Amino acid sequence: MSKWYQHFCTVVLCTSGLVSGIHANELSTTQAADSAIDVRQHQRDLFLDAEEALKRRQLDEYARLNQALKDYPLQPYLEADYIRLLATPEDDDRVLEFLSQHHLSPLGWQVRSVWLDKLMDGHHYEQFLRDYEHPGSTRHQCFSIYAQLATGSGDTKPVLRRVNDIWLTGESLPKDCDPVLEAWTNAGMRTTDMVWQRIALAAEGGKHTLIPYLQKMLPTPMHYLSEHYHRVRRNPSSLNELKYLTGDYPELETQIVAYGLGRLIWRDPDIALKLIDNLPAHINFSADQYLKLRQTFAVALSVKGHEQAGRWLARIDATEHTDVTLHWQLAEWLRQGAWTQIMGLVPRLPDTQRESEQWQYWFARSLEALGFVPVSKQVFERVAQQRSYYGFLAAAKLKQPLTLSRNGLELPAEQVNRVRQLPGVQRAYELRALDRNLAARREWNALLEHLPPNDQRALAVIASEWGWHDQAIYTLGLLGEYDAIAQRFPTAYMEEHQEFSNAANIDVNWALAVSRRESAFRNDARSHAGAYGLMQLLPSTANLVERRDVSVHELFNPSYNIRLGTRYLADLQRRLGNNWILATAAYNAGIYRVYDWLPAQPMEADRWIELIPYVETRNYVKNVLAYQQIYRSLRENELQPELFGELVPMQISGSQLKP
Fold first, then answer.
1. CATH 1.10.530.10 residue ranges in the chain?
2. Is 204:259 a contact under the CB 8 Å cutoff?
3. What's the rounded Cα separation, in Å, for the pair 45 and 40?
4. Domain 413-482 class?
5. pLDDT (0 to 100) of residue 31
6. CA–CA separation, 614 vs 589, rounded Å?
7. Could you tell me which of 387, 315, 394 has the C-alpha nearest to residue 359?
8. Mean pLDDT of 357-382
9. Buried b (16+ CB within 10 A) or exposed e, 325-354
10. Which of 387, 627, 416, 445 lies closest to 520 in space, CA to CA?
């Protein structure tokens, strides 16, 4: 690298926010810095031109631009594009050099995948086996076996045994696997048990339309089993047709029944409850099957508020509880106000569950309700040391200050500067500058996967300095750096949050907490449910708030998204008796579900939150409340638990809120 370019790197990266700690005398003039930034912008323009030239197959122009960009961080992306589009097996050396240089980069696996496809198409077996890395795609796995068979000699069974793992999937296999599946079958390795295992995978969550195809591979007397599995998958009420339980294969019939009951209890609990007590004598569940059924029945009945929920929860021993069944046991007793049962169960729980903040808090609440106030205070004091929903609740119960570290993650400047210069970091910065956020995140995740913990911490500091808040938050969480409050709870887009919260007449800390929980301040976030942007708004919700059709593009605008999100929060709060806790739940689950969850008789807010049927919404409310308290404390330099102080005496009731 030339001295001029070294100077350029120092200047442009400093002024771009990539390097900190550069002394003023290291920068010749402000004009030089501005010029360096102009050069970097010029490089970005040339990069885009080079991409376009390659797409148009203008190879001379591409080569000229590629040469001019040899020192630009994203030049490897141009080389990767060339290999994907134009490389042939004759370009072996060029490809191997690229794969060697970018082995730990996302570019490495992207290019390798396309390169392997090219070698497959040309049946270049030895090159493929040399460049293939396990596991790869399913089709690459199959071709690696095929290539080994084609180039090897002697006993083929060790190679064919690799097909076992490929076979055991509930999904269809690519056609590239047909040759090795045929060889595997001809070698006698496709057993009846292997076929049945795959039918079970297809039935229980896989592609059920695969079952008729697999059925042909079973002995004829077993066909009724796969037909019944398929029938139960499509409609678990088919279990009522006991004529299909002939007793010819009792263990396999029991497997089908256990699966079907686990689904039926959610769809039609009364039918499932009746059926489980009236099964044929040869349906004998194993200990594991019956435990899983008891756990599933207990949870499903509890979620539905079924009268039999308590009976099924009582069938689970303290040592048999999962976190989910244990929550619903707690919820059942909280609904009843059964404080004695809660107090009695806690000492019998396994250590990890007994010592959790949730159970310690409710243990203290039980002691308090039963009159053991001094002991309850001791337990509350332990819980109050935690910076969490339950810790803040316990502090509010005791009317004492919160435990809240204000620390940021600080590292030596030379370490952070060294990590800034890593090629992956440089590429991530440039990709973000080009608004290629997905590719930038891939680079970042590759760095997190391969760098040592101390350098990962430096990545978190760098992401925070860049304002790349979601990556900073994710990285700090991954590292367990929970005390780095300054970086984990940034006041991102503060001007917009303040302006629109004021306009909507809601607490700005609440809006910040919702944005933090919804997207970690990622403005281009999108969910599987179809919500978009910083505050994760559904287009239908945005249309309702704005009273016109709102485009997805508009929802990715942070300012616009915050304006609509704060208005929606304010509207929910107004419709729910000005209760921001109910509005928080409604923001996640919908207002009509919250109406359904409201008790007829007044109930303490902490109990009501614990009884929210949806685990996602329940945890969402707890998180938003904790985040809101953290933002309030950080911004107002105040550690008194005033927010949770409002929650502790609050009563939730639906008597005056029904639409």
1. 494-652
2. yes
3. 9
4. mainly alpha
5. 55
6. 8
7. 394
8. 96
9. bbbbbbbbbbbeebbebbbebbeebeeebe
10. 627
Active site members: 518
CB 449, CB 455: distance < 8 Å: no
Q: Indicate the SS3 state at residue 344.
A: helix
Q: Strand 603-604 vs strand 651-652: parallel, antiparallel, or unpaired?
A: antiparallel
Specify the CATH class of 494-652 in words: mainly alpha
CA–CA distance, 343 with 367 (Å, rounded to integer) = 7
pLDDT for 369: 95
pLDDT at 27: 40
Tokens matching residue 574: 């107004």
Specify the pLDDT at position 152. Answer: 85
Query: Is the CB of residue 469 less than 8 Å from the CB of residue 521?
Result: yes
The count of residues in the chain is 659
Q: Please, what is the angle between helix 357-369 and helix 389-398, to 10°?
A: 30
pLDDT-derived band at 587, boundaries 50, 70, 90: very high
Could you please report the per-residue DSSP string of 207-274?
-GGGHHHHHTTS-GGGHHHHHHHHHHHH-GGGGG-GGG--SSSHHHHHHHHHHHHHHHHHH-HHHHHH
Tokens of 101: 């240089």
Rg (CA), the chain: 30
Q: What is the pTM of this model?
A: 0.87
Query: Which tokens belong to 407?
Result: 């620390």
The two tokens of residue 419 are 């990590």
- Residue pLDDT, tens place only, 176-234: 999 999 999 999 999 999 999 999 999 999 999 999 999 999 999 999 999 999 999 99
Which residue, chain included where needed, has tokens 């209760």? 579
Nearest-angstrom CA–CA distance, 323 and 312 = 16
Nearest by Cα to 241 from 285, 294, 278: 278
- Complete DSSP assignment for 51-117: HHHHHTT-HHHHHHHHHHTTTSTTHHHHHHHHHHHH--GGGHHHHHHHHHHTTTSHHHHHHHHHHHH
Q: pLDDT grade, residue 1 (50/70/90)?
A: very low
Confidence of residue 638 (pLDDT cuts 50, 70, 90): low
Mean pLDDT value across residues 387-396: 95
d(Cα 528, Cα 196) in Å, to the nearest integer? 33
Confirm if 513 and 624 have CB atoms less than 8 A apart: yes
Instruction: Give the alpha-carbon dihedral of 639, 640, 641, 642, to 10 degrees.
Output: -120
Buried b (16+ CB within 10 A) or exposed e, 511-531: bbbbbbbbbbbbbebeeeeeb
Q: How far is 546 from 557, CA to CA, in rounded Å?
A: 15
Does an H or E element contain 610, and which? helix 605-610
Q: Helix/strand/coil (H, E, C) string of 398-445?
A: HCCCCCCCCCCCCCCHHHHHHHHCCHHHHHHHHHHHCCCHHHHHHHHH
Helix or strand run (H / E) with residue 185: helix 178-186
Average confidence score pLDDT of the chain: 91
Mean pLDDT for 396-413 is 84
Band the pLDDT of 412: cuts 50, 70, 90: very high
Which segments of the chain belong to CATH 1.10.1240.20? 413-482
Residue 641 has what pLDDT?
61
Query: Quick one: DSSP state of residue 315?
Result: T
Contact 471, 524 (CB under 8 A): no
Tell me which residue of 291, 297, 289, 241 sits closest to 269, measured CA to CA.
Answer: 297
Residue 34's pLDDT band (cuts 50, 70, 90): low
**Pairwise CA distance, residues 514 & 620, whole Å:** 9
